[in-house]
Write a structure and sequence with these properties.
Blueprint: E1 3-8, E2 14-18, E3 38-40
Antiparallel strand pairs: 1-2, 1-3
Length: 69
Amino acid sequence: MPIYEYDCLDCGERYEKLIRTMKAKVIVNCPICGSQHARKAISLFGSRSTQSNSNVGQVSDTSGCTPVG
């Protein structure tokens, strides 16, 4: 179940909404002003990866990574 971020078009608040199914129509209300005028925001996600067997369990260095877009 993904968590989406939304931007309220009325007050500018950014908030999150857990979406339980992709088939149902989702109605989101701003937690600040109650408006249903929102757009889905582009957000980054985190991931965890391992390198070779000698580094099992260590998180890879992503300090040089930058978001695209």
